[in-house]
Amino acid sequence: MIVGKKYQSTEIPSRASEPEVLYAVRQNKITSNFIDDLKKLSGLKDELLSTSLNLNIKTFRSYKLKSMPMKPYLQEHVFTLLSLFKHGIEFFGTSDKFGEWLQKENFFFDNDMPINFLDTISGIRFTDSRLTSMEFGDNV
């Protein structure tokens, strides 16, 4: 990561550390352009993504249409979701397969769908830890 340079969503790692997220947010490097990148990467519908980001659909779509600064909590949320989706796609091979897993009930998510955990940072981290567990042989 180069100091003073704006992040591009392609530079967000699939396993982002807390200091990387904190640095990007503190430097205001995550703009609303990343929301459109998240939409393209995830392949999910606007309604699902806006719910995950705790935005109403109108606000979500306006962020997608033009570049504008975002509040720190939203920058962090977008950054960690992009990282999660990159990790999930690496593991499952495609965004479609990862999306299917996210939208199926799962015992390790209290018989809920993992996608319902993406509206908080701790839920995203929990989902990411489940992916890591599967990489090491857990049946999640």
Q: Round the Cα radius of gyration to an integer and report it.
A: 14 Å
Shape assignment: globular
Residue share in helix: 55-70%
Assess the beta-strand content as a share of residues: under 5%
List the topology elements.
Blueprint: H1 18-26, H2 33-42, H3 46-52, H4 57-65, H5 72-92, H6 95-102, H7 121-135
What do you see in this structure?
By secondary structure, the protein is mainly α. It has one domain (17-135). It is built from seven helices and no strands. The chain has helices at residues 18-26, 33-42, 46-52, 57-65, 72-92, 95-102, 121-135. Helix 2 (33-42) crosses helix 4, helix 3 crosses helix 4 (57-65) and helix 5 runs parallel beside helix 7 (121-135). It is globular.
